[in-house]
From TrEMBL, chains A, B:
Keywords noted in UniProt: Acyltransferase, Cytoplasm, Lipid biosynthesis, Lipid metabolism, Phospholipid biosynthesis, Phospholipid metabolism, Transferase
Function (record text): Catalyzes the reversible formation of acyl-phosphate (acyl-PO(4)) from acyl-[acyl-carrier-protein] (acyl-ACP). This enzyme utilizes acyl-ACP as fatty acyl donor, but not acyl-CoA.
Organism: Romboutsia hominis
Main location: cytoplasm
Name of this protein: Phosphate acyltransferase
């Protein structure tokens, strides 16, 4: 098993990527390939003591920046750490790729470099958000496809269901449609039609979920178009960050508040870490013909190591083959 | 000026409605008409000392419950407190109606009893959510229309802009489109087309806003389809409630936590009240030919009084006439 890391991608590159790779080699005993500026990477790796046999550095000369236009960057920066890493998966040299770089570019690279699985119309990005029961909930699609057809939502459901079983270890993931009410027949045209189709697919479809209940562990997977998924995720994130800010402000506004906050310091840190979704590893891009994991842009070494572990489970669990099997079954049922 | 209150609508009916009406009579000196069971309402009003000349009770025999199917309820319960209240606005006897009852029924009643303003394709519901700068942000549409055309979003923008000026007193409201990124050209087909049209309308259009920034006072008005508006609102609400729950749990889990929480009791109460959007009064239904304000289902007397004040400002500000003027100008610019 080989996992490839886009060495230069992410806000804390290459440091976090290198430290995450070292810790993954130590903890999981796997082989890591890393792409990027060889000199810089070698210097960074020289800080650590680990089994050098398990590391391969592939020199690349370009970097895709956050400001780059995704499709253009993938097409023009052929020797970037991201494109080369994706190509190693495409060519079968590595089993999965981890990148904390430009999200749009990774989505475009998934499509144009790795390629779609035949029979899947649109790949989806599946980030996980923490819920109040200290578990997590997958959003499929979390933002790859702004406009969707009912068929796309059905594929998102099937693919994320496989991922939840094989990578997250859930035996019978609950799958729900993001909607404005829980009753059947609610919502816009897209979700009404998708609801009908989801009833006929072999998965644990529990119906609709309202956005306010997502955090209450109502479901393991939320199916929606990528526009809705983005709104859902970002709205939750914005409020969580703001409430922490307000708390801080409130606590610092009086001596009594400061004293109280001092006593609660450890508890507040726990709360903050719960709400920090960067801790929950990366988001898989499902539906492309290889393992592609998007790590959060601000990933620290722990997030990178967690994302590598996701890549390992993705490969070991044969997620790709299961998705291909779904395509066959789904096609047969349509005929 | 006369404001009519659906006396039997809401979780705390009729108590909160009656107390809110009494306080509005005292504070604003206006005439209140209230619909509902006369005997029950008279008994409730007898608890208060106020100018009885300013109150009129109109007896009704039916109540629309939260469980009732909206359209069916409006059509079959003709003598309900809600339908009769709406009719009083339709007939011009009252200037605006306040209801804390079944939201779907009020939307249906707005359309079928009060009727649309000619030239407005779809009315929208405009709830306000608190932002972290202690102001509020209007969501247009907050849930009335699951499927929208670009034209609808333009109308939502124009109508909520008028409301923000006349009722909220903003001189030049900022209007933004809910989107997955701030750059022009982002998003689904609907928002891309709406963006183009909004550039050509006479209002302070500031472009796109991401859901994570809504709470940061980025804009005064967020324009979106009702499906997106519902997801945005409910996701924020769910997280805010959950975080408060987690805080409570965290604080009660240790002696130190309990001590700290005791010191912070007043501050936490302030924070909770900030996040309680019921405090921010009601949501207007814009685009129907009369003032219709939806108060939160769990409204207390203060929320009802605030909603009555919104109704007064709605009528005094000639919001309806301004919307009709927009229709004329907009039509001319299309010709």
């Amino acid at each position: 098993m080989r996992i490839v890391i886009d060495g230069m991608g992410g806000d804390n590159a290459p440091q976090s990527n290198v430290e995450g790779a070292v810790n993954a080699i130590k903890e999981y005993g796997i082989n890591i390939v890393i792409t990027g500026d060889k000199e810089i990477l070698e210097k960074e790796f020289s800080k650590y003591d680990f089994d050098k046999e398990k590391l391969e550095i592939i020199h690349t000369t370009e970097i895709i920046e956050n400001e780059d236009k995704p499709v253009k960057a993938i097409r023009s920066k052929k020797d970037s750490s991201m494109v080369v890493a994706l190509r190693l998966v495409k060519e079968g040299y590595a089993d999965a790729v981890i990148s904390a770089g430009n999200t749009g570019a990774l989505l475009a690279g998934g499509l144009f470099v790795v390629g779609r699985i035949k029979g899947i119309d649109r790949p989806c990005l599946c980030p996980a958000i923490p819920n109040a029961k200290k578990g997590m909930t997958l959003i499929a699609d979390g933002g790859a496809n702004a406009d969707c057809k009912p068929r796309n939502l059905v594929e998102f459901a099937a693919m994320s269901n496989i991922y939840a079983k094989k990578v997250l270890g859930l035996s019978n993931p609950r799958v729900a449609l993001a909607n404005v009410g829980i009753e059947e027949g609610k919502g816009n045209d897209l979700v009404k039609k998708a609801y009908e189709e989801l009833k006929n697919i072999d998965l644990n479809f529990i119906g609709n979920v309202e956005a306010r209940d997502v955090i209450n562990d109502y479901t393991d997977i939320i199916v929606c178009d990528g526009f809705t998924g983005n709104i859902l995720l970002k709205s939750a994130e914005g409020v969580a960050i703001s409430v922490m800010g307000l708390l801080k402000e409130t606590f610092l506004s009086s001596t009594k508040g400061k004293l109280g906050a001092m006593l609660l310091k450890d508890d507040l840190r726990k709360l903050k870490s719960f709400m920090d979704y960067a801790e929950y590893g990366g988001a898989p891009l499902l539906g492309v013909n290889g393992g592609v994991i998007k790590a959060h842009g601000s990933s620290d070494s722990r997030a990178i190591k967690n994302a590598i572990n996701q890549g390992i489970k993705f490969a070991k669990g044969n997620v790709l083959q299961d998705i291909k099997d779904f395509v066959v079954v789904n096609k047969e049922s349509e005929e």
